[in-house]
TrEMBL record:
Species for this entry: Ilex paraguariensis (yerba mate)
Pfam family of the protein (one): Peptidase_S28
Name this protein carries in UniProt: Lysosomal Pro-X carboxypeptidase
InterPro entries per record: AB_hydrolase_fold, Peptidase_S28, Ser_carbopepase_S28_SKS
Domain of life: Eukaryota
Record flagged with keyword Lyase: no
One example of a Gene Ontology biological process annotation: proteolysis
GO molecular function: peptidase activity
Alphabetic keyword roster: Glycoprotein, Hydrolase, Protease, Signal
Length: 492
C-alpha cells in the first residue's frame, strides 16, 4: 500500500506530465460551474440546515466490514414546504464530484421553484467528497486499497436511496413525490437513480448528462468537435488562427532558445520546459470557454474578439496571446499549470475514472481545430495500474446502467426523465438529444452551455433560457399532477 506521500507524488507527476486526452487525469471538467466561480458565492441563507446521516459503507455485501458506517452530510430547506398532509413534493439535489457547498449557493433550480411547488429541498453530498468522507480526507481514502473500493457510483446511488427512504419515514411523507436533480456527472446520477430506484423517485432532471460518452457509443472526438464548432461559429478567422497556432508553437519551440521565446510571448510565470505545456494550457482555456459559454459574457466570443482584434502586424502567436488576455484578463504573468493543481475533486475523480468512469475523449486527425490526440485505452489503463494498482473497467458503466441501444432500452423500460442540454456545451455530444417517449424528453437550446438551466436565474437571462426552464417546470408539474391523480384512484 502506497504511503500518502507517494500517492501525492504520483498524482502530481501524472497531473503535470500527461496530455489531456491520453490519460484519465485531465479529462475536461465535469461540473455545473466554471472553475472561476468565486468562493465568495458559497454563502447560503439561514434557511438551510445541515444534518448527518449514519450511512452504510457497503450496501451490497454482508461481510462484517460491510456493516461499517460513516457520516454523510445532507442539507434541508423547508421554508416553502407544504408538508406531508398536502403530500407536497420533495426536490432532491444529488451531489457529485465535489463538496456540497458551492451547489447550495449556486444551484438555483431548486430554490427558484420551491415556493411554486411548495417543495422541501434536500441536498445530499456524494460519498468520499466534502464532509462525507469515511476516512476524513480524500488522500487517506485513496491510499487505502480496501476503502476506496467503496468509492463508486452504485454505492453513491444506494446512499441517496437510503437517505430518502429514511427522510420520508421521519417526516411522515410517504406520499410526497420525489424529484431528483443533478448536473453533469450529477445529471448522470439523476438519470441512473430514476432507472435504478423508480419506487423512490417520481422523476429526474438530468442536466448536461453525457450518459452516452462511454464505451465508444459517442465518437471520441465528440467533445472537441463541439468546441471547434463553437469557435468556428463565433469567427472563421479566429478558428483558422487557432488551428494554425499549434504547428507555429512547435516551430518556435524547435529553435534555439525557442522555449524562452514562447515563455516571453505568453508571459508565463515560469519558463516553459516543453511546448506541450503551453498547448495543454491553451487546450484547457478553449475547452473551458466552450463548455461554459454562457450569457452575458459568452467567453468564446471574448477570446475570438481578442484573437481577431490583435494589434496590426501581430503574428499568429501574438494574436493567440491576445485571446488569452481577453479570457484571463491582464496579469503580470500567466500560470500555465493553473488547471493542473491537485484538488479534492481532481484526486477523487482520478480514482472514479480509474475504476468505472472511463470516458474515451480524444481527437482524430483533422476532425477538430486541435492537434490529433486519440484516446489511448492501453495507456490509460497502464497509468491507472501504476497509480492505484488496479485497471479500469471500461465496459462496466454500460453493463450496469445501459448505454448500447439506449434509445430502445429507455423507450421500453424507463419514464419521467428530462435530459436537458445546451448545444454549445461540448458534453452535449454524449447526451440524449431527442425525445425517446412521451415522458423521456430532451429539452435543449442551441445557445445553451453546461448545466445553465439549473443554475440561479437572473434578470439578464435571455428568453430562450427562460423558456427552457419553463418547459422543464411544466413537465415536472405534469408528473406531479399524475402522481396525485394516481393517489386519489388508490384511495377509491
Amino acid at each position: 500500500m502506497k504511503s500518502l506521500q507517494i500517492l501525492h507524488q504520483w498524482l502530481l507527476l501524472l497531473l503535470f506530465s500527461t496530455a489531456i486526452s491520453a490519460t484519465p487525469f485531465d479529462t475536461p471538467r465535469l461540473s455545473p460551474f466554471r472553475r472561476t466561480v468565486s468562493e465568495e458565492s458559497n454563502t447560503v441563507s439561514g434557511d438551510f440546515r445541515t444534518f448527518f446521516y449514519t450511512q452504510t459503507l457497503d450496501h451490497f455485501n454482508y461481510r462484517p466490514q460491510s456493516y461499517a458506517t460513516f457520516k454523510q452530510r445532507y442539507v434541508m430547506n423547508s421554508k416553502y414546504w407544504g408538508g406531508p398532509k398536502e403530500n407536497a413534493p420533495i426536490f432532491v439535489y444529488l451531489g457529485a464530484e465535489a463538496p456540497l457547498d458551492r451547489d447550495l449557493a449556486n444551484i438555483g433550480f431548486l430554490t427558484d421553484n420551491a415556493a411554486r411547488f411548495k417543495a422541501l429541498l434536500v441536498y445530499i453530498e456524494h460519498r468520499f467528497y466534502g464532509q462525507s468522507n469515511p476516512l476524513g480526507s480524500i488522500e487517506k481514502a485513496l491510499e487505502n486499497d480496501n476503502m476506496r473500493g467503496y468509492f463508486n457510483s452504485a454505492q453513491a446511488l444506494a446512499d441517496y436511496a437510503e437517505v430518502l427512504v429514511y427522510l420520508k419515514k421521519k417526516l411522515h411523507a410517504q406520499n410526497s413525490p420525489i424529484i431528483v436533480v443533478g448536473g453533469s456527472y450529477g445529471g448522470m446520477l439523476a438519470a441512473w437513480f430514476r432507472l435504478k430506484y423508480p419506487h423512490i423517485t417520481l422523476g429526474a432532471l438530468a442536466s448536461s448528462a453525457p450518459i452516452l460518452y462511454f464505451d465508444d457509443i459517442t465518437p471520441q472526438s465528440g467533445f472537441y468537435s463541439v468546441v471547434t464548432k463553437d469557435f468556428k461559429d463565433a469567427s472563421e478567422s479566429c478558428y483558422q488562427t487557432i488551428r494554425k497556432s499549434w504547428s507555429e508553437i512547435d516551430k518556435v519551440a524547435s529553435k534555439p532558445n525557442g522555449l524562452s521565446v514562447l515563455s516571453q510571448t505568453f508571459k508565463t510565470c515560469t519558463t516553459l520546459e516543453q511546448s506541450s505545456d503551453l498547448r495543454d494550457y491553451l487546450d484547457s482555456i478553449y475547452s473551458e470557454a466552450a463548455q461554459y459559454d454562457e450569457p452575458p459574457t459568452y467567453p468564446v466570443a471574448g477570446i475570438c474578439g481578442g484573437i481577431d482584434g490583435g494589434l496590426e502586424g501581430d503574428d499568429i502567436l501574438g494574436r493567440i496571446f491576445a485571446g488569452v488576455v481577453a479570457y484571463k484578463g491582464k496579469r503580470s504573468c500567466y500560470d500555465i499549470n493553473e488547471y493542473n493543481y491537485p484538488s479534492e475533486t481532481k484526486m477523487g475523480w482520478a480514482w472514479q475514472q480509474c475504476s468505472e468512469m472511463v470516458m474515451p475523449i480524444g481527437r482524430g486527425m483533422n476532425d477538430t481545430m486541435f492537434p490529433p490526440e486519440p484516446f489511448n485505452l492501453n495507456g490509460f489503463m497502464t497509468d491507472c495500474k501504476s497509480l492505484f494498482g488496479v485497471r479500469p473497467r471500461p465496459h462496466w458503466v454500460t453493463t450496469y446502467y445501459g448505454g448500447q441501444d439506449m434509445k430502445l432500452v429507455l423507450q421500453r423500460y424507463a419514464s419521467n426523465i428530462i435530459f436537458s442540454n445546451g448545444l454549445r456545451d461540448p458534453y452535449s455530444s454524449g447526451g440524449v438529444l431527442e425525445d425517446i417517449s412521451s415522458s423521456i424528453l430532451s429539452v435543449q437550446t442551441t445557445e445553451g452551455s453546461h448545466c445553465l438551466d439549473i443554475v440561479k436565474a437572473t434578470q439578464s437571462d435571455p428568453q430562450w433560457l427562460i423558456m427552457q426552464r419553463k418547459i422543464e417546470i411544466e413537465i415536472i408539474e405534469g408528473w406531479i399532477r399524475k402522481h396525485y391523480a394516481d393517489l386519489r384512484l388508490l384511495k377509491q
